């Protein structure tokens, strides 16, 4: 099996927003969900995750509140805002268009 792939910053934002569209969760949970959904291909390191969460919160796309984790520890839980949902929809459409275009170039012989 190949090693996990690091993520580009803009892609990480999109994946975080998509993950939070499913349900609110804390940072470690977000990283684990992305890893699980990608079948261990994508791995989000803490050094990239928390700055991205802070940036998304600053932009008004997510909100955070303190809560208690499954192991009874205090944790910050993040959820998608209505503005974040709109941004996610727009960026998802852009991603589909971009990835289709890249696919066309790569398939050209």
> How much beta, percentage-wise?
5-15%
Gross CATH architecture: Orthogonal Bundle
Q: Which strand order do you get reading across the main beta sheet?
A: 1-3-2
N-end to C-end Cα span = 29 Å
Tally of contiguous helical segments: 4
Work out the radius of gyration: 15 Å
The ordered string of helix (H) and strand (E) elements is HEHHEEH
Helix/strand structural class: alpha+beta
Give the total of domains. Answer: 1
Give a structural overview.
The chain has about 110 residues and is of the alpha+beta class. The protein has a single domain, classed as Winged helix-like DNA-binding domain superfamily/Winged helix DNA-binding domain (Arc Repressor Mutant, subunit A, Orthogonal Bundle). It has helices spanning about 10-20, 25-35, 45-60, 80-105, and strands at about 25, 60-70, 75-80. The chain has a 3-stranded antiparallel sheet with strand order 1-3-2. A hairpin with a 5-residue loop joins strand 2 (about 60-70) and strand 3 (about 75-80). The chain is globular, with a radius of gyration of 15 Å. The mean pLDDT is about 90.
């Amino acid at each position: 099996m190949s090693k996990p792939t690091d993520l580009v910053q803009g892609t990480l934002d999109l994946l975080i927003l998509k993950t939070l569209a499913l349900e609110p969760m804390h940072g470690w949970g977000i990283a684990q969900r992305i890893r699980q959904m990608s079948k261990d291909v994508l791995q989000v390191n803490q050094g990239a995750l928390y700055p991205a969460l802070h940036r998304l919160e600053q932009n008004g796309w997510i909100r955070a509140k303190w809560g208690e984790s499954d192991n009874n520890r205090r944790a910050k839980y993040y959820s998608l805002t209505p503005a974040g949902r709109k941004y996610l929809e727009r960026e998802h459409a852009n991603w589909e268009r971009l990835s289709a275009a890249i696919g066309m170039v790569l398939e050209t012989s």
